[in-house]
Amino acid sequence: MRRPFVAGNWKMHGSRTENAELIEALLLGVPGQTTTEIVVCPTFVHLWEIGRLLKASNVSLGAQSVCAEAVGAFTGEVSAAMLKDVGCRYVIVGHSERRAIYKEDDALVARKFLAVKAQGMIPILCVGESLDERERRTTNQIVTRQLSAVLDLAGVEAFGEAIVAYEPVWAIGTGKNASPEQAQEVHAHIRSVVEARDAKIAARLRILYGGSVKGSNAREIFAMADVDGGLIGGASLKADEFLKICAAVQVH
Ligand code: PEP
After folding, report:
1. How does DSSP classify residue 5?
2. CA–CA distance, 245 with 252 (Å, rounded to integer)
3. In the prediction, which pLDDT does 33 show?
4. How many Å apart are CA 153 and CA 116, to the nearest integer?
5. pLDDT tens, 83-98?
6. What is the pTM of this model?
7. How many whole angstroms separate alpha carbon 5 and alpha carbon 165?
8. Which of 56, 116, 147, 154 is least surrounded by Cβ atoms within 10 Å, i.e. has the fewest?
9. 251 with 212: CB under 8 angstroms?
């Protein structure tokens, strides 16, 4: 049995006041006894303040990215130790916006994954294909490559405490989600790639779907056998919508 997981990626949105209001509205609606693990990932400058508002709640704090280096002259970067120090438990690595806009390649993503693990935090590793790659029927090949880069560097044991998020690039922020069957097919493939290295770790690994999940489509996607929750962008900026999504996750 895998504990369901939903993370909100707030990206570069909201003022301090708006995000504090968002978290207050969210906390009012989160059931006290939920079995679902809920995480919010604000931008770096809001982490400390949001983390304080989350204290004594059952919602965890995550960051959207991290520097692969531990310390030093890396202007503008934020280390894993700093994220841990402000209360982060999770860190997203390899989000497609980081890969596409900031040219983060598989090797760098793998180093970031390791940096997060080295601080005892839990990486949320994003993988997924572009529209062109899907149309060329190379989805499994792309996802295998992205995943293998991390497995090779960090070792499969590192996935004993890690989350993988399948996020087809063509579905992120486009309003065009993968069908439940498309998501299931890739999730099963991701699990099989890990299973080839360690069956027990693969069986326990939580694999999230991300890409235009809304309150109205979450339940059918989360019903699929290998979909253990979601990584939510746009819909995580509205408390009621995010809560609907959290209520739709299912235990597999
Ligand atoms: C994301 O940014 O990770 C994401 C899934 O965005 P959206 O839900 O808006 O498609």
Report:
1. E
2. 16
3. 79
4. 13
5. 999 999 999 999 999 9
6. 0.98
7. 11
8. 56
9. no
C-alpha distances in angstroms, 70 versus 62, 124, 150, 227? 18, 19, 18, 33
Active site residue 187: no
Residue 34 has pLDDT above 90, yes or no: no
166 and 183 in contact (C-beta within 8 Å)? yes
3-state SS, residue 232:
strand
How many whole angstroms separate alpha carbon 208 and alpha carbon 230? 5
Q: Which of these, 186, 182, 201, 180, lies nearest to 248 by C-alpha position?
A: 180
Distance (Å) from CA 167 to ligand 1 centroid: 8
Let me know if 95 is a catalytic residue.
yes
Cα–Cα distance measured from residue 248 to residue 222, given in angstroms and rounded to the nearest whole number: 7
* The residue count for the chain: 252
- What average pLDDT does this structure show over 184-196? 98
- Given 97, 104, 129, 167, the catalytic residue: 167
